[in-house]
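User: Can you recover a sequence for this backbone? Please restate the input before giving your answer.

Assistant: Of course. Working from this structure:
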């Protein structure tokens, strides 16, 4: 699978604590009926052969744990993407020698991610909200935004709209984005 290869390549290139690993996936998240795990699906993923053709949450966890990057950012915008937080569990304690780990999922482990069905080809609601805040900033006087502030802002908006709320897990550090 090309996506898996790109994630592995990015981790191999981020081979010291001077690097930041940034993985952003937006697409399908499928729950396996065989093992009840979530798999991220690309265009070449077969539901019949989900274990072989999808990207398991366990693979993402192991890849992030084994990457030497000093900062690690993982953003998953897919149905059931919240399973990554459960999968990471106590693993966050392994990151204590790093500057920061920030994992964001667009949904909980049992929710679907939504997109505007009337506008095929546009990003999901979560990705659109994230892009909007990075591109246009937010109503504050700061030159920088933390990823945490951005996600909390999206969460507030989605709560009012009845959309699935993003979840974030942060360890050791505040990651900022210049606006």
């Amino acid at each position: 699978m090309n996506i898996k290869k790109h994630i592995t390549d990015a981790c191999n290139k981020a081979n010291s604590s001077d690097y930041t690993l940034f993985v952003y996936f937006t697409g399908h998240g499928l729950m396996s009926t065989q093992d009840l795990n979530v798999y991220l699906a690309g265009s070449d993923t077969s539901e019949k052969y989900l274990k072989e053709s999808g990207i398991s949450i366990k693979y993402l966890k192991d890849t992030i744990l084994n990457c030497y990057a000093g900062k690690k950012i993982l953003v998953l915008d897919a149905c059931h993407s919240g399973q990554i937080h459960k999968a990471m569990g106590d693993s966050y304690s392994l990151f204590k020698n790093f500057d920061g780990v920030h994992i964001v999922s667009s949904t909980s482990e049992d929710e679907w991610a939504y997109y505007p069905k009337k506008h095929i080809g546009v990003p999901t609601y979560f990705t659109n909200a994230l892009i909007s805040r990075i591109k246009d900033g937010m109503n504050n006087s700061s030159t920088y935004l933390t990823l945490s502030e951005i996600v909390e802002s999206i969460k507030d908006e989605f709560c009012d709209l009845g959309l699935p709320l993003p979840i974030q897990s942060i360890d050791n550090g505040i990651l900022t984005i210049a606006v």
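That completes the design. The longest helix spans residues 147-161.
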